[in-house]
Structure formats: C-alpha cells, structure tokens
Amino acid sequence: MNTTLNRILLVEDDLDIQSIARLALELLGGFTVEVCSRGQEALDKVSAFDPDMIVLDADPLADITNSRKIDSVWMNGKQVNRDSLAPHGHG
Fold first, then answer.
1. Where in the chain are the domains?
2. Which of 1, 5, 27, 84 is surrounded by the fewest CB atoms within 10 Å?
C-alpha cells in the first residue's frame, strides 16, 4: 500500500497560525495545503481536495461536533471521544 503524503487540509481559525503553518508545510515540507477556518468549511472541501491528512485545531470543530460525518477524531496519536470536543470557555 502506497502511503505517500502530498495533500494536507489545515483547519485552523487563527489567521496568524494559518499563515505560519501553511508557509512551513508548503515551503519546508513541500506539501500542497488547503486551509479552512471552520469545521463545516473543511467538510465542504474534503471531497474535492481529497487530502492525505487533515491537521486541525479543536476549536473549529465546534460547529460540527454533533455531525455524523466524522467517523473518528485523533489527537496526539490517540482516538478522542467527540463529546470531549464540545465548545468550552477560554480564559
């Protein structure tokens, strides 16, 4: 099985982090990167872009955490319960 990693979908709501991450992934990593700010936007783009990997911040998931379109979520190498991604206060 060929597991070449070329296309990355980056889901991040902070514009500064978007810019820095995209720059690093494209220029240093040589990847093709598509950027989204919200979870629903990512779901809308995923079919056409067909990413090999999705890199995301948990905050943009708030608009789709109850969606059945997400089969599983992994963070730091471990599968996470979608309910734990519910919006929470940031202080």
1. 1-11+33-65
2. 1
What are 78's strand-pairing partners? 75
As given in the structure block, the two tokens for residue 72 are 């599983």
Output the pTM of the full model. Answer: 0.68
Residue 47 is predicted with a pLDDT of: 86
- Give first-to-last CA distance, the chain, whole Å: 45
- Residue 42 makes CB contacts below 8 A (sequence gap 6+) with 9, 11, 36, 54, 56, 60
Question: Which whole-number Å values give the CA distances from 8 to 35, 39, 43, 47, in the listed order?
Answer: 9, 15, 14, 13
Q: How far apart are CA 68 and CA 77, in angstroms?
A: 21
